[in-house]
């Protein structure tokens, strides 16, 4: 009985270490991929990347109408940002 329990614990430990190593590798590879992508293929300038893009009058009217309808006239738009 004791041999079965120690075998189960050793398999548990090896499995948990393997999962942690794979997750660590996913994080590292993801961060390296992000760094390489931002370095070699940056976003073009002037496409609203600085958050200063303007909203057209038609879009603003549609947003205001939707907020008023949804909130019953109690909602107020203070800032529009692209996510």
UniProtKB/TrEMBL annotation:
The chain crosses the membrane at residues 12-36. Keywords: Membrane, Transmembrane, Transmembrane helix. This is Oxaloacetate decarboxylase, gamma subunit. It comes from Tangfeifania diversioriginum.
């Amino acid at each position: 009985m004791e041999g079965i329990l120690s075998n189960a614990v050793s398999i548990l430990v090896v499995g948990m270490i393997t999962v942690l190593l794979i997750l660590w590798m996913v994080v590292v590879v993801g961060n390296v991929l992000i760094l390489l992508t931002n370095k070699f293929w940056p976003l073009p300038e002037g496409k609203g990347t600085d958050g200063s893009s303007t909203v057209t009058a038609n879009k603003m009217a549609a947003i205001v109408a939707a907020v008023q309808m949804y909130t019953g006239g109690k909602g107020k738009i203070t800032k529009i940002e692209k996510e």
